[in-house]
Amino acid sequence: MLDESKRYYYHIRLLIVLCAILILITLPNQVQARTLKVGTYHCPPFIFNAEAKGQNGLSMMLWQRIAETMGVGYSVQNYELEDLLLSAEKEIIDVGVSCISITPDREEHVDFSHSFYETHLAIAVKKQSYWDSFISVITNSKLWKVIGAFFFVAMMVGSFYYCLEHKKNDKLYSMPTKMGRLAEAFILGILFISKGPFNYFEFKTLPARMMTVLLAMFSTVFIASITAILASSLTLEQLRFDVKGVNDLSKIKTGALKSTTSSLFLSDHSIAHEKYNTMDDLLIALDNDEISAVVSDDAVLRYMIKQGKTEGYFSDFTVLPYQLEKQNYGLILIEGSPYAEEINRALLHIRETTEWHEILSEYFIEK
């Protein structure tokens, strides 16, 4: 009986030892299964791959916090944009981290996390000199149309009063020659439209006096309309740039990063453009007048120009106040990623934290 009891406990101990060995053997595999392969694409300020800054940036900060929340390790490999998307499609990496816009075309090949940053495409140009601004004013077609309309109405009003008054009103038409009196009529029309109606008793004939009352209301509305048109089309900011919208990009040499939503946007609008490999190359081309405008993500443009100005570059660059196509950045995931739910849950939580909003302010708010 004792021998059987010893054998029983011996088997129990042997089973415990075997279980412990099995756990020790499988534990490294479990840890390895939770080490993710992360791909990045250089896109300041979301990803910096420069040696001086290492793997850093807004998107990397976000991913580091997501990884901490998930309790996973990760290794990082840098790619060009096309290679990054292809690596995710072929499941060479588990996650792509950068400033990648979520688009229907890309969704056909890879999955995305929830959006972690919203922006839009924007246009950057070099500021014109004040002489160029003056040239823009005097060559503005809308300005000349308004001036033409003004003088036409003034001529019609002056002609009307001349026909009624020139034989009876020596005060308004005092020049000895006919040409002089016609000039006075034209001046009267200009003054009537620009300054408002003359005194009712300046006119001698009843039709002229009656028309003065009617034109008093017309001239007020007319001048208000002209002022509104000029204010909307000839503001200081608009006068200082040749580009006033997407359609104007077809008239000038435009640049964008290749394989990006900016390049696709321009192609969709049938706008020929130069394609560059990096933002540095793109902005240097603008600075050297090789191109006249840049189309890229607003957040990236503003950050790069801001950083350039702190280093003494791009002092005359500006981002125009036009919001083109909206962009939503997400993390790239392989199709059917087993980590998608965990990543999205952690991402949504981090997005709402005060820390994340402070980080965004540090990069994008002008101080």
Structural summary, described in words:
- The chain crosses the membrane at residues 143-164, 185-201, 213-236.
- Residues 35-367 form the Solute-binding protein family 3/N-terminal domain.
- This protein has 367 residues and is an alpha/beta fold.
- The chain is 53% helix and 13% strand.
- The protein has helices at 2-33, 58-70, 81-89, 104-107, 130-138, 141-165, 178-195, 206-233, 236-239, 261-268, 279-287, 298-310, 340-351, 354-364, and strands spanning 35-40, 73-78, 95-97, 111-112, 117-126, 254-257, 274-276, 293-297, 317-319, 326-329, 332-333.
- It contains 14 helices and eleven strands.
- The radius of gyration is 36 Å and the shape is elongated.
- The strands form two sheets. Strands 5, 6, 7, 8, 9 and 10 form a six-stranded mixed beta sheet that branches. A five-stranded mixed beta sheet has the order 2-1-3-11-4, sandwiched between helices.
- Residues 26-33 and 236-240 have low confidence and may be disordered.
- The protein has a domain at 131-238.
Number of helices: 14
Question: What value does the average pLDDT take?
Answer: 82
Ends apart, CA distance between termini: 86 Å
Sheet of most strands: 6 strands, mixed
Shape: elongated
Helix content: 40-55%
Alpha carbon gyration radius: 36 Å
Helix and strand composition category: alpha/beta
The low-pLDDT segments are: 26-33, 236-240
Strand content: 5-15%
What sequence of helices (H) and strands (E) makes up the elements? HEHEHEHEEHHHHHEHEHEHEEEHH
Record field, number of beta strands: 11
Domain Solute-binding protein family 3/N-terminal: 35-367
Subcellular location: Membrane
Protein name: Extracellular solute-binding protein
InterPro entries: Ionotropic_Glu_rcpt (IPR015683), Iontro_rcpt_C (IPR001320), Solute-binding_3/MltF_N (IPR001638)
